[in-house]
Design goal:
Shape: globular
CATH architecture of the largest domain: Sandwich
Largest sheet: 6 strands, antiparallel
Structural class: alpha+beta
Strand order of the largest sheet: 7-6-17-14-9-10
Strand content: 35-45%
CATH class of the largest domain: Mainly Beta
Radius of gyration: 21 Å
CATH superfamily of the largest domain: Probable inorganic polyphosphate/atp-NAD kinase, domain 2
CATH topology of the largest domain: Tumour Suppressor Smad4
Length: about 300
């Protein structure tokens, strides 16, 4: 096999379990004649990893597969790196819940081999694009695989805002903020505020208020092709933070508007043969188990 083949390993704040899996995988790929790239800022945590530690700008050079080792946060970070590069992404679960990192450690080597041999199923996921003008006049843009979140800046204060969908007024809100989530992100933050679980192959977006002041202010599901606009109402001390997949994009000021819509960029997630989304839900959410004895119904 040609030694020109390359894979990239992505970890974040690697703990001992992540470092152990990364070491095992790097050795395995080396035996296959594949060069491994890893981010230089993880070199101290990963120890004597058999890899080339490179800058973020060089990580994807010549790479045919990106492997994220950790939790869903790590995979979201990796998704941001591969966005626009058309490089498939495989997630190894060394975190907690793991809706996106669905390969367990005992299946890691076999799953990576299957990915390199073209035997995994390809799952194309949509991204959201967010754009707004910051208080200093700079135009901010971001991409999100899971969600775009508008959240209050100050504890004890409500943030007041309006929502518009495709230039049509929807509602005036008071509360802690708003989540605009993809179908992928429906099992993340949006789920914790009462949003629905949406099958990832549906082209829809969940719009979910965070701790709304009015109990009738409920999550809604709209077309994935819609443009959602959040307009911050001009009130004293009314500032909101905008985040894409948990990464702060800056401050939304009173009178400003955030526009969120579909992005042409897609992410290609890889799953081992036999991947079943509903089986994943059962596993992660403990569906089909009796609360008193843990047995399957």
């Amino acid at each position: 096999m040609s030694t020109s083949r390359r894979c990239a390993l992505v970890t974040r704040f690697a703990d001992s379990r992540v470092a152990e899996s990364a070491q095992l995988l790097a050795e395995h790929l080396h035996r296959r004649g594949i060069t491994v790239h890893a981010l230089a800022d993880e070199a101290m945590r990963l120890g004597a990893l058999r890899a080339e530690f490179v800058t973020e700008s060089a990580l994807l050079a010549g790479t045919e597969l990106v492997i994220a080792i950790g939790g869903d946060g790590t995979l979201l970070h990796a998704a941001g790196l591969v966005a626009g590069h058309d490089i498939p992404l495989l997630g190894i679960n060394r975190g907690r819940l793991g809706f996106l990192t669905d390969v367990m450690p005992d299946a890691m080597l076999a799953s990576v081999d299957a990915a390199l041999d073209g035997l995994c199923s390809v799952d194309t996921r949509a991204l959201l694009a967010a754009e707004f003008v910051a208080p200093d006049g700079e135009r901010k843009r971001g991409l999100a695989l899971n969600d775009v979140v508008v959240q209050k800046r100050q504890s004890g204060h409500l943030v007041d805002f309006e929502t518009w969908i495709d230039d049509r007024f929807v509602n005036t809100h008071g509360g802690d903020g708003l989540i605009v989530a993809t179908a992928t992100g429906s099992t993340a933050y949006a789920l914790s505020v009462g949003g629905p679980i949406v099958a990832p192959d549906l082209d829809v977006v969940v719009v979910a208020p965070i701790c709304p002041h009015t109990l009738s202010d409920r999550p809604i599901v709209v077309s994935g092709r819609a443009t959602i606009e959040v307009r911050l109402i001009d009130r004293p001390d009314s500032l909101a933070e905008v985040a894409c997949d948990g990464h702060s994009q800056g401050t939304l000021a009173p009178g400003a508007a955030l526009r969120i819509g579909p992005s042409s960029t897609r992410i290609r997630l890889l799953h081992p043969a036999g991947y079943d989304y509903f089986r994943l839900l059962r596993s992660k959410l403990n569906w089909g188990r009796r609360s008193f004895d843990g047995e399957h119904d």
